[in-house]
Write a structure and sequence with these properties.
Radius of gyration of chain B: 14 Å
Shape of chain B: globular
Structural class of chain A: mainly beta
Strand order of the largest sheet of chain B: 2-10-9-4-5-6
Oligomer: heterodimer
Strand content of chain B: over 45%
Distance between the termini of chain A: 36 Å
Number of strands of chain A: 13
Largest sheet of chain A: 7 strands, mixed
Order of helices and strands of chain B: EEEEEEEEEE
């Protein structure tokens, strides 16, 4: 199974400041057949299902604000919130959709400082 | 608007069975894979299994933790997917989510339902 490791477990950021979350996979999730990294980022607020933010490591899902961006390739990935808003308080998960079993990182809780 | 609604959760005794339903609308159900995930109280997300579209032979895959106990099926005529759960244990207590998968045989997931809580307890 591909193990996904996120860091940090939690972070507190001031409103308007940048938040950065890291994700590392135990093996590459890059597919040379279509030149894509099969890495996804979700946002989950309390009592709600996960909401897709980013797929293919860096492509924003429909309707996602452009303050959210993803980067990285192979085994190392980053989610950046460029200017944290109050509504961004949530737990963020990375997930590989390269192969089954689909696996998730442990989550990063983002709070306001 | 893409919608998925889970139902069928509740309190069940260890060793018993339960069937969850995922009723969908807003997209051509038969074209897409459907995935089930779960989240134990206060814990992270776990993939339970997937069923592909008939274009990909409707093949199913399940997590090792549920293989042989859980089974995913689909009724394309009703736009509903099912998760049959047998031999339930307390470890299966979680919110269960269904989600829309890919049209193309990959494992991409985009829209999720609100989830249904399954509590396994005597």
């Amino acid at each position: 199974d591909i193990v996904m490791t996120q860091s940090p477990d939690s972070l507190a950021v001031s409103l308007g400041e940048r938040a950065t979350i890291n994700c590392k996979s135990s093996q590459s999730v890059f597919s040379s057949s279509n030149n894509k990294n099969f890495l996804v980022w979700y946002q989950q607020k309390p009592g709600q299902p996960p909401k897709l933010l980013i797929y293919w490591a860096s492509t924003r899902h429909s309707g996602v604000p452009d303050r959210f961006s993803g980067s990285g390739s192979g085994t190392d990935f980053t989610l950046t919130i460029s200017s944290l808003q109050a509504e961004d308080v949530a737990v963020y998960y990375c997930q590989q959709d390269y192969t089954v079993p689909l696996t998730f990182g442990g989550g990063t809780k983002v709070e306001i400082k | 608007e893409v919608q998925l609604v889970e139902s069928g959760g509740g309190l069940v005794q260890p060793g018993r069975s339960l069937r969850l339903s995922c009723t969908t609308s807003g997209f051509t159900f038969g074209d897409y894979a459907i995935n089930w995930f779960r989240q134990a109280p206060g814990k992270g997300l776990e993939w339970v299994g997937s069923i592909r579209s008939q274009a990909y032979s409707g093949t199913t895959q399940h997590a090792a933790s549920v293989k042989g106990r859980f089974a995913i099926s689909r009724d394309d005529s009703e736009s509903i997917a099912y998760l049959q759960m047998n031999s339930l244990t307390t470890e299966d207590t979680a919110v269960y989510y269904c989600s829309r998968g890919s049209k193309y045989g990959t494992y991409h997931v985009d829209y999720w339902g609100q989830g249904t809580l399954v509590t396994v307890s005597s």
